[in-house]
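Please predict the structure of the following assembly.
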Amino acid sequence: MQNTIQPSDVYAIAMHHRFQWEEAQQCYVILFPEGMVKLNGGAGEVLKRINGQASVADIVADLKTTFPDAPNIEADILGMFDLAVGKAWLRKV
Amino acid sequence: MTQNSLGDSAVQKVVQAQNNGVSASATQTQPLWLLAEVTYRCPLHCAFCYNPTDYDKHTKNELSTEQWIQALRDARKLGAIQLGISGGEPLLRDDIEDIVIEAKKLGYYSNLITSGVGLTEKRIQAFKEGGLDHIQLSMHDITEEINNFITNTKTFELKKKVAAMIKSHGYPMVLNVVIHRYNIGHMKEILEMAEALGADYIELANTQYYGWSLVNRSQLMPTKEQVDEAERITNEYRAKVNGKMKIFFVVPDYFAQRPKKCMNGWGEVFMIVTANGDVLPCHSARSLPNMQFPNVKDSDLGWSWKDSPAFNQYRGDSWMKEPCRSCSEKENDLGGCRCQTFLLTGDAEAADPVCSKSPHRHLIDQAILDAQNPQIQAQPIVFRNDKNSKKIIEGELQERLSAFNALP
């Protein structure tokens, strides 16, 4: 399914969803009617950069700069986009 | 309101979410979900309401606005994120607007759980501006006849108007339909109605038997064949809409072989503050014997959650007896529901009678048979209203309550 995510795509958090940092849990969460998901560190780093303006390529570049030592980071990021789109947490702008 | 809509399914969804592979290690000791049962007053009289049958005791000692706001602040510090504002009918209070504003300020994802009665343009506008995240509307059937019968009110047309109002204010449309004998045959039509109303989510919640629904169990319970057919239709419809409308089907435990993991475990992720300020780990906990639940008026909420004897009573599995204690599946369901177990067996530490390994399973089988017994079926429904609640408090209606080991 990964080929559905294009570098030029721009995403925003989906309608009726909210992404926020939770101090008590020390993690990012995504909230929506009747549910919530706690995100691990990597997933949180990707989602916090999604703002309806930055493209997938921009976010990949930003994360590569922030985490220069992480191996295979691009595949992980695209995988995260893929999952988040599949879960309908994101909408394409 | 329905127990299904408020508790189990919501918690199950949280847990599903935690298990989808992207979650951090789950912190199991935070009340992620706070349910504020702000009032037990209600303009509807639903036969399947899970509220305590003696709710009339708690209609004149409700928490003040200030007490609710303090409870929201304290729960947020403990890690609460999802807030359900429920009842009774929460809109019977005129301070829901203030509660919503505070919830937004604190960072809750807030949900108003309503029958729709009392929702006006002015109020929904105030909720939108105040930052309420969504509204869950209860619907009952596609027919005016069944809607009005089961709720004992004329609310059918109103509900359709409220649904349109929710949509027009840009809210997601979240519908909850409690399923019972009277509407289980209309599953396809109910789903079509939901789709036509533009529902984003619909929860088809098979009645679970607590409170008023336990008193009316024989009048409400469908047959296993009806439940199976309802699930089949639901699955078919889900495939057809292909994700456009999310459909949850909450399965009834009476027809299962294993109990539900009630509330995802006692004192694990779910906390209720009731109209009068009692702090509970589940909706029906006050039916348990020899338990003293803390109250926000005189106990710190952090102590209530972490340290109170009541919240620790059934945490984990050390309280279990046989057959649960040595059961290889005990972690899957933690022995089921303590309240259901006590109400039906008289022993709160026994295995949930739903379980086929329970020595009390015959009680469930008998209840299923009773629900098909024409003589028992013919008993009138005891509708949820102040008059019936007062009667129950005064010890009347014994013939409908004597099978249970506490007031449901």
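The CA atoms of residues 46 and 151 of chain B lie 4 Å apart. The interface with chain A takes residues 9-10, 13-14, 16-18, 20, 22-24, 26-27, 30, 32, 77-79, 81-82, 107, 109, 111, 133-134, 136, 171-172, 174, 200-201, 203, 243, 248 of chain B (CB under 8 Å).
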